[in-house]
Give the backbone structure.
Amino acid sequence: IQHGQAHEALDAFEQMQSEHFSPDSVTFVCVLKACGSIGCIEKGQKIHAEIDKQGLLRHEKNVVLGSALVDMYAKCGVLVKAQKALQELPFRDVVCWNALISGYAQQQKGHEALNTYKSMLNEGLSPDIVTFICILKACGCIEAIEKGIQIHGEIVCRGLLMKDIVLGNALIDMYAKCGVTESAAQVLIELPIRNIASWNALIAGYTQHGKGFDALSCFELIQS
């Protein structure tokens, strides 16, 4: 799984079962990850049924398994089942919610992502960096600039931009996609660390909104 060999992982799982070893929670977490990475929904559903049969999700210590289940459905693009799996979990943490929010954001379902985020907050959970990255992507895809500005404020209050360049790039991308390129440029200037993805997000925003001269100026700044 760690080296992207999902098919080999599933073959190993089948071999393990043929030797009459019973899978545990760790096995199921890994196999669900394999199914999600290659979109093997049929196998994933069979694993889900086996997990339910063994009653593994009833224990609070198995919240990681619940997150893996939601993530598998989300990565396979079956977001209705991902949402249902999340709702049926007896124990949920921010990682479980992130899996569903990320799935919605990946499929450009910004409104659904924002509604899921709101539900997570209503459960009293605090968003982490991954949550903010996914929500910023959701805001960008539906041009929800007011929500994006609100999220920016929360990120700044927590001092998170000093810790994670991916979050900073997501913020630039959100403003750029919403057409607020001045704010995107300001965020880039204020980032403590920048990489090529930071500049690409801004250049893409300029290009998308017909600001070719600004895009070319950015290109020259990158080289300098």
User: Anything to note?
Assistant: The longest helix spans residues 25-38.
